[in-house]
Automatic annotation (TrEMBL):
It comes from Cardamine amara subsp. amara. It comes from the Eukaryota. Pfam families: UDPGT. Belongs to the UDP-glycosyltransferase family. Gene3D superfamilies: Glycogen Phosphorylase B. This is UDP-glycosyltransferase 76E7. Keywords: Glycosyltransferase, Transferase.
């Protein structure tokens, strides 16, 4: 009895990167660990702070002090912003951690592990001074991790020249990286290559991390996982898709408009194209109008997420654009959708996506084939895997023009080719379900990881 009372509580400290696509999977991982009996602390930056809902009341949320503003993200772009954030947070996080550890001892708690998003690499430098068990969480695909490594190594050989293929032929495949072409390497539309390379050098540095957890599945990315295992020489745990592992919890930074589910309820089975470009992709007004025309010509219904502020140039105000588009028949437009619920809806037949990794996993998890329109970084590689490896998507390249949009939508929604993709997507869906089941590879991987705590 006494021994039981004296047993220390085991706490895991998790540090998300402050972006929607990174917050969601780390909270899902926290839920899975909490279910296994661990106490949870989430240390978030003030920037993009997830307001913890009632569903997360079992977790402790703390803030890492920093002074970054929305305007910094706008002015610097995501790459430079993350580098600045790492510099700002290192000292404040270390100070906070020191005090936190003292407090934990007084209440008989033990921090068994610190899990940090790969883009919050400053955490490794801070925790090693306290000799804490630390682990990297990669919220992008294993292939994206490999691409970052390769890009950073190619750049080290002779800078930009090696990132463009021989003689600047960006269409060429990168050796031993099928199906990635030089143009699919995770360069960013927001920053010069040097900035991406600096960031990747840090995200690929394992330091004292004892292992890496990846939100992916063996059956999707076995060769990239093996590559990483060889290169990093520490255990690599593929434990995804995390949204299928953990119970659902609200992690949206924006308010979800659930009215679109009522609209979907009125649509025929597999008749709707769902369009969403994630949490920070931007579009030009011209592209939006070309897409709208193409969708109308395709004769398919659509549910379109247009985030406030996501349309870059505006000869027309967003309000006007909305008005023009809602007069289109067969369309429903929302500012932010309950995406997982939408993809699980029987009315949805295809997903027009920027191919962010979360969106990709959520679509594969529901057996929904995709029209891939990547915008930046890892999204390009994800689109290639969807089209060339898993064969459940078609990529739209080049300028967005109404005829191109119409053809892509028809290929997926009307043609036999689309039927075949749908069949393959449903097979993959079953494989992912098996992976997270009691006998599955992701389930086993999570158990193996927990044994190390
Ligand atoms: C970013 C990068 O773009 C992505 O490539 C990287 O893999 C993770 O970080 P983001 O652009 O936000 O993420 O895309 P994605 O990874 O797809 O994440 C978006 C999340 O927002 C998904 O979980 C999706 O379900 C959710 N979402 C999106 C909504 O809940 N509602 C919406 O209307 C749109």
């Amino acid at each position: 009895m006494e021994e039981k009372l004296a047993r220390r509580r085991r706490r895991v400290l998790l540090i998300p990167a402050p972006a929607q696509g990174h917050i969601t999977p780390i909270i899902q991982l926290a839920k899975a660990l909490h279910f296994k009996g661990f106490s949870i602390t989430i240390a978030q930056t003030k920037f993009n702070y997830l307001n913890p809902s009632k569903n997360l009341s079992d977790f402790q949320f703390v803030t890492i002090p920093e002074s970054l503003q929305e305007s910094d993200l706008k002015n610097l772009g995501p790459g430079r912003f993350m580098i600045k954030l790492a510099k700002e947070c290192y000292v404040s996080f270390k100070d906070w951690l020191g005090q936190f550890l003292v407090k934990q001892q007084t209440i008989n708690e033990e921090i068994v592990c610190v899990i940090y998003d790969e883009f919050m690499y400053f955490v490794e430098a801070a925790v090693k001074e306290f000799k804490l068990h630390n682990v990297i969480l990669s919220t992008t695909s294993a292939s994206a991790f490999v691409c970052r490594f390769v890009m950073f190594k190619l750049y080290a050989i002779d800078g930009l020249a090696h990132l463009k293929g021989s003689g600047g032929r960006e269409e060429e495949l990168v050796p031993e990286l099928y199906p990635i072409r030089y143009k699919d390497l995770p360069t960013s539309v927001f920053a010069p290559v040097e900035i991406s390379v600096e960031l990747f050098k840090n995200t690929c540095y394992k330091g004292t991390a004892s292992s890496i957890i990846i939100n992916t599945v063996r059956c999707l990315e076995i060769s990239s996982l093996e590559w990483l295992q060889r290169e990093l020489a520490i255990p690599v745990y593929p434990i995804g898709p995390l949204h299928m592992v953990a119970s659902a919890s609200p992690t949206s930074l924006l308010e979800e408009d659930k009215s679109c589910i009522k609209w979907l309820n009125k649509q025929k089975s597999s008749s709707v194209v769902y369009i969403s470009l994630g949490s920070f992709t931007m579009m030009e007004t011209k592209e939006v109008l070309e897409m709208a025309s193409g969708l109308v010509s395709s004769n398919q219904s659509f549910l379109w997420v247009i985030r406030p502020g996501s349309i870059r140039t505006s000869e027309m105000s967003e309000e006007e654009l909305f008005r023009k588009m809602v007069t289109l028949e067969r369309g429903c437009i929302v500012k932010w959708a309950p995406q997982k619920q939408v993809l699980a809806h029987s009315a949805v037949g295809a997903f027009w996506s920027h191919c962010g990794w979360n969106s990709t996993l959520e679509s594969l998890g529901e057996g929904v084939p995709m029209i891939c329109r990547p915008f930046t970084t890892d999204q390009k590689g994800n689109a290639r895997y969807l089209e060339c490896v898993w064969k459940v998507g078609i990529q739209v390249e080049g300028e967005i023009e109404r005829g191109v949009v119409e053809r892509a939508v028809k290929r997926l929604m009307v043609d036999e080719e689309g039927e075949e993709m749908k069949r393959r997507a449903l097979i993959l869906k079953e494989k992912l379900k098996v992976s997270v089941s009691a006998e599955g590879s992701s389930h086993k991987s999570l158990d193996d990881f927990i044994k190390t705590l």
